[in-house]
């Protein structure tokens, strides 16, 4: 039988067996992606392994400080060829979808390299020889922390900071529905390992240029309420990114702000960074699951936080997404009240 503990045992064997590791994560990495990579790298280095980290996309400003001692390289054709040629194993963190590692995916076809996945997404294709994919984990960093403990490794302060950033960003600073007792226990252990929560949080959140807040203000000023106030739609145009000197990763946190409006079930952000390239981000406040709306269109995520990149205008994207949200709310209306069965 293939159980979660079998997969974890297989991963420990994988880490033991191999010596030259390449780590990667999903395109447009977030705090959990970078945090889990840095912590994983430090763990492997402490075991005498060789480690490189190579991502498709650059590290967002907010998380760059985590990489001071463990640099993360950004894809170029030549660099990727070199890194794949010298490694004997690839560990993919915070995604289990091959397409989500971006331009690294094609190098996988060309190199006989063993692959292990350490992820917590519901939507995954599990393309590794070893797949440790546990959707009940609040963050990939949480899973990495449990794996470290199983191997009797206590993270040093830098690794603990990286894990703390992964956990705190993926739980929205311990506010989302994935915040459970395990998340708080892990936070406590990381603080005991030397993390200063105030400092770590400030380093992540207090990195924005003033234009980012003006941009948030503009986008929020244009918010629309649909479905009797249960769906909030916000959108950002290429011109706004350009005028404020921002990139796609600068929208981090924006989609979460309208959740504070009373009665909201779903927030949808349509972020058009370049003309006809729209990144859709959906958030549910808890009663409806929105991951399938994204996975049906080629994206994915978690029941209460999901995304999908779409080609076409923001109007095209809205036409694909908003009717689906309407259906989810209609299903909610039709469902018997909690407790009433049969
Ligand atoms: P975002 O809206 O980009 O912050 O993403 C919310 C959640 O959905 C995160 O856990 C992402 O990792 C996940 N996600 C976003 N886009 C995709 C995608 N194209 N495929 C799979 N998962 C995604
Ligand atoms: Mn992520
Ligand atoms: Mn994650």
Can you give a write-up of this model?
This protein is of the alpha/beta class. It has 12 helices and 12 strands. The chain has helices at 4-17, 31-46, 77-86, 105-110, 140-150, 157-170, 181-192, 197-205, 210-221, 238-244, 291-295, 314-334; strands spanning 20-24, 50-55, 73-74, 89-93, 114-119, 130-133, 224-226, 231-236, 266-274, 277-284, 300-302, 305-311. The strands form 2 sheets. The protein has a 6-stranded parallel beta sheet, with helices on both faces. α2 runs parallel beside α5 (140-150), α5 (140-150) packs antiparallel against α6 (157-170) and α6 (157-170) packs antiparallel against α7 (181-192). The two termini are 34 Å apart. One manganese (II) ion (MN) binds next to loops.
